[in-house]
Specification:
single chain; about 425 residues; alpha/beta; Rossmann fold; four-stranded parallel sheet; about 45% helix; about 15% strand; globular
Length: about 425
């Protein structure tokens, strides 16, 4: 039985009403997630079925040189495909066969849908089934949507992992499953701490290699590493797995609560937990304190972008002394974000969805010390004299667990340092 996660003594954001906004939104599409997912699975290849715009997005976002051999690419839909003058399935089969003949190291192929492929109703799920049969047993073909239609960029990973969950083997072994992609060095830190507590077996989703893919069943308990994996959590629960509810492992407090929830689920004693976590907790507190001096007493406004917003607001308010004015998030999953929201005192506006112009009006009225937003909104706000932090940087930078806690605080302190230096030069 899990002990209750830490909460704020009094009214918290978990009880706050939610301002639901449905209007114009400014986000990257889910194809962006391929940039970090392809690094996580070295035997996988992501084939986007889309337009030249999709190819340009991936190329520019990844910074890949033209002569490199990345583990992603685009099967470009030409005008004749879009007009129905060619059989897109036949052309896709040829492209896949050519790709696999050139890249025998590929063990898992993702067919990634895009806005163009979905608009013309190209059935990539059927294509994945057909190609799996054609190239079995060496290749596993999985389909998911990376479309940017009414989604945000982190949902690309959620769609990918949810699709992977559907094809995982069945098994009822009692196990811990860590769900969400992290840089290998950070994932290894989590695995090391959990191993020191004596918890076995521990598996990851996504696994780094196909042969390490976990079997899922009633014995599986899973802990999310990312707060944007709602569809993946639902897919795992449909397979019989149970989620360990906990705050996300950001900062010393969040990481401790996350590990404590896992330890309680697997019967780890308080003495063992303290022995394993005491030293890294102390290092994390010291590292955060060094950066929090710049953040103490400052206000922060979160525009919706990544779904990390509630977890980051908890970290900044409780560990760095900041005051959240508004916590905007694209989608609010109470089962996942609830433990983080329960640790934040009530007061901030809690909003779900996006209506850009209205939210920008609230930012301008509030004049926060720091605004966390998408890249497309940052430069205009900076021109108006507001300090900003790109939310996408929090996805590409290692920020989870104890050893990265100081770096996480530093990411928010840096824009304030920069603005202070600019103000000093101006004076």
């Amino acid at each position: 039985m899990n002990r209750p996660v830490p909460t704020f003594e009094g009214a918290s954001c978990a009880d706050s009403p939610v301002l639901k906004e449905r209007g114009q939104h400014e986000v990257f599409c889910g194809l962006t997630s391929i940039i970090w997912l392809h690094r996580k699975m070295p035997d996988a290849f992501f084939l986007v079925v889309g337009s030249r715009t999709c190819a340009h997005l991936l190329q520019s976002a990844a910074g890949v040189m033209i002569f490199a051999e990345p583990r992603f690419g685009t099967a470009i839909l030409e005008e004749q495909d879009l007009a129905g003058m060619a059989d897109a399935h036949d052309e896709l089969d040829r492209e896949v066969a050519h790709l696999l003949s050139r890249r025998p190291d590929i063990r898992r192929l993702f067919l990634v849908g895009s806005c163009p492929s979905e608009v013309i109703k190209l059935d990539l799920s059927r294509a994945a089934e057909r190609l799996t049969k054609a190239h079995a047993p060496h290749i596993q073909v999985v389909n998911y949507s990376g479309s940017g239609i009414e989604t945000t960029f982190t949902q690309g990973e959620d769609a990918c992992l949810a699709a992977m969950t559907e094809v995982l083997p069945a098994g009822d072994e009692r196990q811990l499953l860590l769900v969400g992609s992290l840089p290998d060095v950070v994932e290894d830190q989590a695995l090391s701490l959990i191993a020191e507590m004596g918890i076995t077996p521990v598996r990851t989703l996504p696994a780094r290699r196909v042969e390490d893919a976990p079997a899922i069943g009633a014995g599986s308990r899973f802990a999310l590493l990312q707060p944007f994996l709602g569809d993946t959590a639902l897919a795992l629960e449909r397979r019989g797995a149970e989620m360990i509810a906990a705050p996300m492992p950001f900062g010393e407090e969040g990481t401790t609560a996350w590990l404590r929830a896992i330890a309680d689920e697997f019967g780890v004693s308080d003495e063992v937990f303290e022995r394993v976590t005491a030293a890294p907790r102390a290092r994390a507190r010291k590292a955060v304190a060094a950066k929090a001096e710049r953040l103490q007493g400052k206000s922060v406004f979160f525009l919706p972008d990544s779904q990390l917003e509630p977890s980051l607001a908890r970290f900044l308010s409780r560990e760095c002394g900041m005051t959240p004015l508004e916590i905007g998030t694209p989608f609010l999953h109470r089962g996942i974000a609830g433990p983080d929201l329960a640790m934040i005192p009530s007061g901030p506006v809690l909003s779900e969805g996006q209506d850009v112009e209205r939210q920008l009006d609230r930012v301008r009225a509030a004049r926060p010390d720091l605004t966390v937003c998408g890249m497309g909104l940052a430069n205009p706000l900076e021109a108006e004299g507001l300090a900003t932090k790109w939310s996408i940087e929090l996805i590409f930078t290692p920020v989870h667990l104890y050893e990265q806690a100081g770096d996480l605080a530093g990411l928010f302190a840096r824009p304030l340092d920069r603005r202070a230096r600019i103000a000093g030069l101006a004076s």
